[in-house]
């Protein structure tokens, strides 16, 4: 039985949080973002923030189940409004009540500090990184495009093809709608994206040792053009 791509629901929040955090467990940058948190603390924070992300406009969330039914991979896409609305019209989408949205907002705010940063985050390290990334993002295409905002696979299921399955979904959607896809690749993700037709448009090198992070860490901003 091949991998199955399925929509994500609020009932998946614990599973998705576990995948997101554990997929980067060996990434030197990710492990220094919340320096005082245990892995379980990071999972709980991700779980609290996830529902608000799930119901945000233009976001499209997918999961991959393997032949046993285990959910092993997750991706989040941000789509142009018209395409997002089309997919919603074609799919069975779980409607979210105003009361649920209010509850998700409260859960989100519970892990956010007074200065709008997540509680426990290494702000001294992340803030200058984000400032550099904002400058680099100006190299992205200005026309409507698809953003791949996250692609995560459990470590013991990596290199089985789950991420490739998810990328194939996204590239076929982009080609059908004549849209570019943009993303910000980590060192571990770069080879995969390069193999699927993404090309670098800007490279950002961060020096993070003084903040408790790695000596050097690189993000590569990449774009894939639609294929006719």
From TrEMBL:
It comes from the Eukaryota. This is N-acetyltransferase domain-containing protein. InterPro entries: Acyl_CoA_acyltransferase, Trichothecene_AcTrans. Coiled coil: none annotated.
